[in-house]
Amino acid sequence: MTTDPLPDPFGTPEGALAAIEDDIAGAEERARLAHDWASQMMSLSAEGRAVRGQVRVRVNIDGLITGLSISDEVASHGGRQVRTAVLTALKDAMSRLRATSEDLTARQFPGMDATQSAVNAELSVTLRSPDLDPDDQSGPRQNPGGTW
Hints:
Elements: H1 13-42, E1 45-50, E2 55-60, E3 65-70, H2 72-75, H3 79-108, H4 113-126
Antiparallel strand pairs: 1-2, 2-3
């Protein structure tokens, strides 16, 4: 019994070369898209507000505060109220930043749930919401770093 050889999916050497060139072009495009996404992610920031906008906090993608504004009216209420207002605005900013980054990632990598999940897991560690317990006197929390 003789078996027919498996068909050559490329047909000819030229077909094989064309397929390889298509693969390379696709990889280059994916690399360009990933680089563009990384650049956009690194430039993200968001502003959160509290006390009717009288307290504003801006954070970057690393979760670092890059801007802070506290009105004189809020400041006149003392440190505990300022602390609570700043933490509330910080929580708002981080929430907005997570939403923006999740949207950007979903648009850049549609249908790539594993990529989106990995990015979201990293951001959930980096952009942890602050505790709003006004009686907490423990000082700043240590950030153990991301998941990667």
